[in-house]
UniProtKB/TrEMBL annotation:
NCBIfam families: small_GTP. It is found in: Golgi apparatus. It comes from the Eukaryota. The lineage of its organism: Eukaryota, Fungi, Dikarya, Ascomycota, Saccharomycotina. GO terms for biological process: cellular response to heat; cellular response to nitrogen starvation; cytoplasm to vacuole targeting by the Cvt pathway; endocytosis; Golgi to plasma membrane protein transport; protein localization to Golgi apparatus; protein localization to phagophore assembly site; protein-containing complex localization. Pfam families: Arf (PF00025). GTP binds at residues 27-34, 73, 129-132. InterPro entries: P-loop_NTPase, Small_GTP-bd, Small_GTPase_ARF, Small_GTPase_ARF/SAR. GO terms for molecular function: GTP binding; GTPase activity; metal ion binding. Keywords: ER-Golgi transport, Golgi apparatus, GTP-binding, Lipoprotein, Magnesium, Metal-binding, Myristate, Nucleotide-binding, Protein transport, Transport. This is ARF/SAR superfamily. The keyword Metal-binding applies. GO terms for cellular component: cytosol; phagophore assembly site; trans-Golgi network. Belongs to the small GTPase superfamily. Arf family.
Length: 185
């Protein structure tokens, strides 16, 4: 079956409208995923509890409609991440930069996820989160611990962030939108 080209399809693409872009927020439990989702959506710090299942919110950002899925990161929930992979334009992987004990687990989960066929074309944005905390690893240290330079054939970036202070989030999302726009046109 051929692809269907409709007026709205083609011109919507050219003008960057009418697009719904699916983004997943993944990472270990407590990394700050839900805090980031609502900080981006409402501009506020919300009180969170561990996510069992998911939160999904729609965000209008620079002409684009983003469907952002924030999945629970607890060990027992991680096997379900893969149920959400199809049609994902980008993954935002959030790391608690103070959690040195579990950075290797975060790295393993990241690389397992990125091997999945459905995510081969997805861009990757990593937030080295909780930079407001003393002793937080720098973005460079997190990048090294996650072996990000091993990634081939993928657009990726890492940005230092504090969801509590609202720092780095817009910078990260701006980078992601530029990549997604380039790839979808
Ligand atoms: N200091 C600091 N605390 C943060 C930051 N981001 C999130 N937190 C706190 O970290 C805790 C966990 O945040 P959540 O957003 O619930 O974490 P999560 O990744 O959604 O966790 P799960 O839903 O269990 O996967 C909360 O107490 C947040 O307030 C940050 O940038 N700095
Ligand atoms: Mg959560």
């Amino acid at each position: 079956m051929g692809q269907v080209f409709s007026f709205t399809n083609i011109f919507g693409k050219l003008w960057g409208i009418d697009k719904e872009i699916r983004i997943l927020i993944l990472g270990l439990d407590g990394a700050g995923k839900t805090t980031i989702l609502y900080r981006l959506q409402m501009g506020e710090v919300v009180t969170t509890k561990p996510t069992i299942g998911f939160n999904v919110e729609t965000l209008k950002y620079k002409n684009l409609t983003l469907n952002i899925w924030d999945l629970g990161g607890q060990t027992s929930i991680r096997p379900y991440w893969r149920c959400y992979y199809s049609n994902t334009a980008a993954v935002i992987f959030v790391v608690d930069s103070t959690d040195k004990d579990r950075i290797d687990i975060a790295s393993k989960e990241l690389h397992t996820m990125l091997k999945e066929e459905e995510l081969l074309d997805s861009a990757l944005l990593v937030f080295a989160n909780k930079q407001d905390q003393p002793g937080a690893m720098t973005a460079a240290a997190v990048s090294q611990a996650l072996n990000l330079t091993d990634l081939k054939d993928r657009s990726w970036s890492i940005v230092a962030s504090s969801a509590i202070k609202g720092e780095g989030l817009t910078e990260g999302l701006d980078w992601l939108m530029d990549v997604i726009k380039d790839e979808q046109l």
